[in-house]
Amino acid sequence: MTDTIVAAAGIAKRFAGHVAVADLSLEVPKGAVYGLLGPNGAGKTTTIRMIMNITIPDEGTIELFGDRMGGRHHSARIGYLPEERGLYRKMRVRDMLIFLAEAKGVDRARGAAKVDEWLHRLDLGEWGPRKVEELSKGMQQKVQFIGTMLHEPELLILDEPFSGLDPINQQVLKDIVVHLSRSGTTIIFSTHQMDVAEKICDHVCIIARGRKVLDGGLAEVKRVHGGTHVAVAFEDGAAGAEAMRAVADLVAAADDSGVFAELKLKDGVDPQLVLERLMKTGARIRRFERIEPSLNRIFLDKAGPDAADAEVAHA
Amino acid sequence: MRKVWAVIRREFVERVRSKWFLISTILGPLFMISVTVLPSLLMTRAGRVNHIVLVDEGSGSFAERLSTQLQATGRYAVTVLPAAAGRDSVLQDSLTNAVRQEALDGVLTVSTATVESGMATYRGRNISSITDMSVMEGLLRQTVVTERLAQHGVDASIVQDAQRGITLRTERISKHGTTGESGMVTFFLGYGVGIVLYMIILIYGINVMRSVLEEKQTRIIEVLVSSLRPFQLMLGKVIGVGGVGLFQFGIWGLTGYLVVHFRVQILGAFHVSAAQVGAFTMPAISGGLLAVIAVYFVLGFLLYSALFAVVGATVTADSEAQQAQQPVMMLLVFSLIVSFAALNDPSGQMAVVTSMIPFSSPIIMPVRVATSDVPTSQLVMSLAIAVASSLLIVWLSGRVYRIGILMYGKRPNLKELWRWARQS
User: Fold this and answer.
1) ipTM of the complex
2) CATH number of the domain at A228-292, out of 3.30.70.100, 3.40.50.720, 1.10.132.30, 3.40.50.300?
3) Least CA distance to B424: which residue of chain A?
4) Which domain covers residue B124, as residue numbers?
């Protein structure tokens, strides 16, 4: 048994007229919470479908659990939440979940017990005998999420699990993901919400336009791709704007929000020098702090509109 | 196999639980009851009396005699109106008006030439009533013949004697001897078998298509195909839905049996006497025939539902499905139409050939078995072809289905379908 749960090597998928994924390689270590990050249309869903064996890659190979038998062969060990949510609308919630468990090969009685346990845990207990179509969208999403976990999979693949959920339910889902991760489940999920990814991922892979931009452990990615970042806050916006002009030649990229700015400094620039220049302008500074770059910053640098020619980099 | 069982169970339980199943199961027997009861009620019902005027253009006593005959049937109340030549058209106009205003049902005109040439005219509102017209024509013929014979000096009583009723009784002879069934009963049995098989294969085949389409439209298909093989899914679906068909068939069959068995009591409630009920020979539905129907239903359903599953898998919207199901429907409709021909000549070349062709045999062969003695060799051959081709079609459909269920957008043409089927 290898420690790599998913290993994709040079996979590519073309659809009529356009390349969805090109020469993508990634490795998901056992027990990781692996974030597949990228803007809309980057190829996240296509990549996940190839891992799940729903679409066949045109090139490259995918190994799951150390072999090439494919997603369906390992079906019992994988839980999958597709991007396109779908349930049997006319079925009762409980019956449908039991069916989904059975489709994964879980014994009916055991499946029923699991279903009740999870419905209760996600506050959906009283909805069990109701029809799926009577549930709100958020509840349906929770139900579908339950459907992916009933067979206690070793690998959970979630395609945009948080989209469309309110903050409360996002939190509930996050807690479950963290809980499952602690109990040893490997989790792959795709998202374009960097703040969420930053909080729960320990590995990330950023893809843009079908190609991998960077991947690796979160801390490593931040170290290698981060550069020197400082956060600055001014007391008033106008003075701040003037102060920012004074340091413009030292800054490589700025996420300027008026009174607050996150600055990426040019290579070799000492933050101390930046502070001195700012002080000289006479602007009143509320905060000056050397910070870790946010994943969002790295994401914008590497996959944003300015990064069209970004090189493929490995951490 | 456990996964297939889960799919079968879901398809079966969800359907049997639905309102649609309850309604169609109840309406089915009601339909059967009305088929058994209505003809009896209609036959015993006294016909409405038609008020007609018999215009006599100088035919002499002929008009009177015809009038008496017509009145005797109880169907007609006749007023004889002698018309003088010349005033005729005025009279006809006013009578036509009376018919138009529904004061009269019709006008029968006989003239001097009627006996000679056999020509009479009837104009009225009830000419589409086949019984009314055949009674009138029959009586006219009888009266004319009597009149002609009388003119040749034949005694009226001899004429009457010569015209006593003639009936051709038809009885079906099978290998087991005379069955006592009339041609009519055999015809309706075969007709019923054909219609029921057609309906049930069509209804449940379309059910399979809808089920496939639903999974595709709700996108739950992605979860399913990541859990089980598409063929397992399709197989479970076809068996599950077919099971519902057989189950409903069973309920109807049992109800039908009970209705036929207790028909004297049931019809008694409608004030139909036991003697009248006994006048109808019920068709003998043997266990063998039921077995043939069941086997061909299973084979026909397998074949057609696999085709319908392909239709469901290759379309994305309901409106597309309507269109794409046409070719499959045509095969079924064609089979039903040919089965009518097979009813007329169950051992004819057309019937024999179509009972071998896999797409039409599920309907034609049971019809042939119901209406004639099918040689065992033909039955065996037809079954062998049907089994082999059903398996082949299911297998091919499975391959197309597998690819189709994950395809959205443009509907594939036949060439693409064939490529899908060959892809491994």
Assistant:
1) 0.76
2) 3.30.70.100
3) A56
4) 50-162
